[in-house]
Amino acid sequence: MDQEQIPPRWLTDHEPGHSQWYVRRFRTLAAQGVDLEGEARFLDVLVPRNARILDAGCGPGRVGAALFARGHRVVGVDIDPVLIAAAREDHPGPVWIEADLATMDLKTHGEAELFDAAILAGNVMTFLAPGTGAQVLQRVAQHLKPKSPIAVGFGLDRGYPLTSFDHDLLEAGLLLEHRFATWDLQPWSESAEFVVTIVRTP
Predict the structure, then answer these.
(1) Which of 87, 173, 198, 200 gets the most CB atoms within 10 Å of its CB?
(2) pLDDT tens, 166-190?
(3) What domain range includes position 150?
(4) What residues have CB less than 8 Å from 132, skipping those under 6 apart?
């Protein structure tokens, strides 16, 4: 089985019904008024108004919807049909596409225009198929304009070490620009439990 055929960990590491639980969880948090827009605020300052943004690994759409509400043109992509269905139901406006980040070609979905930025929030990198990190980053970058930012955040306790991520960045040909410990710009340190990195396409 080659890399492109290996299913992401999101689909293999969870019990049946996990996706439905995940949707219910974020619907409940939203109904309670919990702030779910930190990642969107972070990316919003990096792009011009009416930017075209790729929400890679969009899940049920909370980040893409918040960016759309800020006036951006958003396309969200996720491999999980349950999460994409929830995004379409809860957040009309953005374009939501069911596709594998490791193999996606958005031109085949009618989205040929290059993007101004991309975001991979919600621990997306830790849920990829093992060994496909560089492949996913390359595929995302291929959909962006030159010199475009990509914001990536994930927990460091999820089996994907920062050294592996940095190796994948290098292999993907991306340029590391900034690193933080949280989406609200807490300074990075080696003791941090979470990492947020901004890279740029060549």
Answers:
(1) 87
(2) 999 999 999 999 999 999 999 999 9
(3) 3-200
(4) 3, 6, 8, 102
